[in-house]
TrEMBL record:
InterPro entries: FAD/NAD-bd_sf (IPR036188), FAD/NAD-binding_dom (IPR023753), Ferredoxin-NADP_redctase_2 (IPR050097). Keywords: Flavoprotein, Oxidoreductase. GO terms for molecular function: oxidoreductase activity. This is Alkyl hydroperoxide reductase. Pfam families: Pyr_redox_2.
C-alpha cells in the first residue's frame, strides 16, 4: 500500500468510520461503549435507508419509514457522544510512515485530512439509474429501486418492474403475489436470470413480459401515472399506465475511492470475510458496499457490529 511520510492531519482517532447509515451507526455505538475513540464522516446522513419508503421489516419497529429510521440511528449515535462530520467526501486512503491510515477528503470546497489507526468503510451503494425523462422527479413518487422495501405499498395496483436479471425477476415474482397486473420490461430479447424464476414468471397469468423494451419516460405530475418505452428493434413507442415502477438494473458500490490493494469483485463490491476484514489489515468494511449477497438494513447493522468488534481486537493488538 502507498506510504506517505509527511502528511498533516486535522484529526486523529483510533477508529474512523466512513459512511453514515445503518452499518456505521451500529458499529459506532459498539465502539463507543468499548471506549474507543471513534468518529463518523460521511457525505450525508441516512444513505439508501433514508431514501426508502415505509419500512416494516426492521426489528423493533412495527412500521416506520426511511427518514425516521435514519433519524433514529443518528439520535442513538449522538446519545453516545460520537462525533459526526457530514459533507465529507473521501477521495483517498493512504498509509503514513507511522503505520496509521491517512484519509484525504473534500469538505466545503476545501481539502481535509484525517488520521486513524483503523478504518471501517460503510459507504453503501447507489442504484443504477435509467436516466430516463421524469425519473428523478418521480423518485419515491411511484418510481423506486427497492421492491423488498416498497413493494407492499403497491398492493392491489398495476406496476412495472424494469430489468432482466435476477433482482428484476425476484421483484416481479414478489409483486405478482400482491398486484393484479405486473409488467416486466427488459431491454434484452430474453430474460437473463435463473431458469426457475423465468419459468414461474412465464406461467403467471398476471405477468406480462415485454422484451426489447427501452424505457424512455416516466409520466406523472405528483405521482407516477405511466411509462413510455420504445421497442429497441422496431422503435415503436408504447405507453402503459402504471402506479408503480421498480427499477432493478443493478447497484453501484460506493467504493471507487478505496486503494487498489483493497480486493473487490467484478461488481466493485469490497470482498470481506465474516467479520468484515478486507484484504488490507486495519481496513474493515460492512453493509451494502461489501460482497454480502443480501442488501438489507438489518443485515447491514449486524455486519457493522461484527466489523467493529474485530476492529477493536485489531486495535488491541497494536497496543
Amino acid at each position: 500500500m502507498e506510504i506517505h511520510k509527511d502528511i498533516s492531519t486535522s484529526m486523529h482517532v483510533d477508529l474512523l468510520i466512513i459512511g453514515g447509515s445503518a452499518a456505521a451507526s451500529a458499529g459506532a455505538v459498539y465502539a463507543a461503549r468499548r471506549e474507543v475513540n471513534v468518529t463518523i464522516i460521511a457525505q450525508d446522513w441516512g444513505g439508501e435507508v433514508a431514501s426508502s419508503g415505509q419500512i416494516g421489516n426492521y426489528p423493533g419497529f412495527i412500521e416506520t419509514n426511511g427518514i425516521e429510521l435514519a433519524d433514529t440511528f443518528r439520535k442513538q449515535v449522538e446519545a453516545n457522544n460520537i462525533p459526526i462530520e457530514l459533507g465529507v467526501k473521501v477521495t483517498q486512503i493512504v498509509k503514513n510512515g507511522e503505520g496509521d491510515f491517512q484519509i484525504k477528503a473534500k469538505k466545503d470546497g476545501g481539502d481535509v485530512e484525517y488520521s486513524a489507526k483503523a478504518v471501517l468503510v460503510t459507504t453503501g451503494v447507489h442504484p443504477r439509474e435509467l436516466n430516463a425523462d421524469g425519473e428523478k422527479n418521480l423518485r419515491q413518487k411511484g418510481v423506486t429501486y427497492c421492491t423488498t422495501c416498497d413493494g407492499p405499498l403497491y398492493r392491489g395496483k398495476t406496476v412495472a418492474t424494469i430489468g432482466g436479471g435476477n433482482s428484476a425477476l425476484e421483484s416481479a415474482l414478489m409483486l405478482k403475489e400482491i398486484c393484479p397486473k405486473v409488467y416486466l420490461l427488459t431491454i434484452n430479447s430474453e430474460l437473463m436470470g435463473e431458469t426457475i424464476y423465468i419459468t414461474k414468471l412465464k406461467q403467471a397469468q398476471n405477468v406480462e413480459i415485454i422484451y426489447n423494451a427501452s424505457t424512455k419516460k416516466f409520466i406523472g405530475t405528483d405521482r407516477l401515472e405511466a411509462i413510455e418505452y420504445d421497442d429497441a428493434k422496431t422503435k415503436k413507442v408504447t405507453k402503459i399506465e402504471v402506479q408503480g415502477a421498480f427499477v432493478h438494473i443493478g447497484l453501484v458500490p460506493n467504493s471507487a475511492f478505496l486503494p487498489k490493494e483493497i480486493k473487490k469483485n467484478k461488481l466493485g463490491e469490497v470482498v470481506v470475510n465474516k467479520v468484515g476484514e478486507t484484504s488490507v489489515s486495519g481496513i474493515f468494511s460492512a453493509g451494502d458496499v461489501t460482497d454480502t449477497p443480501f442488501k438489507q438494513i438489518a443485515i447491514a447493522t449486524g455486519q457493522g457490529v461484527s466489523a467493529v468488534l474485530r476492529a477493536i481486537q485489531y486495535l488491541d493488538s497494536l497496543s
